[in-house]
Fold this sequence. Notes:
Keywords: Repeat. This is Peptidase. Helices cover 60% and strands 0% of the residues. By secondary structure, the chain is an all-alpha fold. The chain has a domain at 2-72 and 121-180: Orthogonal Bundle (Double Clp-N motif), CATH 1.10.1780.10. The two termini are 34 Å apart.
Amino acid sequence: xxxxxxxxxxxxxxxxxxxxxxxxxxxxxxxxxxxxxxxxxxxxxxxxxxxxxxxxxxxxxxxxxxxxxxxxxxxxxxxxxxxxxxxxxxxxxxxxxxxxxxxxxxxxxxxxxxxxxxxxxxxxxxxxxxxxxxxxxxxxxxxxxxxxxxxxxxxxxxxxxxxxxxxxxxxxxxxxxxxxxxxxxxxx
Length: 188
């Protein structure tokens, strides 16, 4: 499948590994893929981010991702469902952090493997890579570009899709931005 990746898509995969290393994460996640997409310049995804106003809000995206990690990776739908059962996630997070320290639900870091710096991709991150192929084929494209990776992230339910949607980058909005092309007016 990787032979179908464009140079930009390969840069995203490599960049995701770099983001995982910087975060001292033992695995590459969907979040790392999104951060690597935000690093790109002059690509379809960077043009879509710019058209939707996401580019200038990177700090806000990073903050939203950090807040989701703080909640143990619960999505907005998870939090709402628990609230419907009378469970206040914010209160639980506060109590856990009071006892175990800030970020206790964000997941512990494992020591780096001494024999290799290889970081495997989580199953959800691999699923995004596979979904990007389906997105590309569905759009009639022969190669997988950064835009297909971004659409795959927006299409998969989870924290990353929630954060994208909160910043105006839903699957539909991204699809319209890609269809309009760089510099063209986007329909809302």
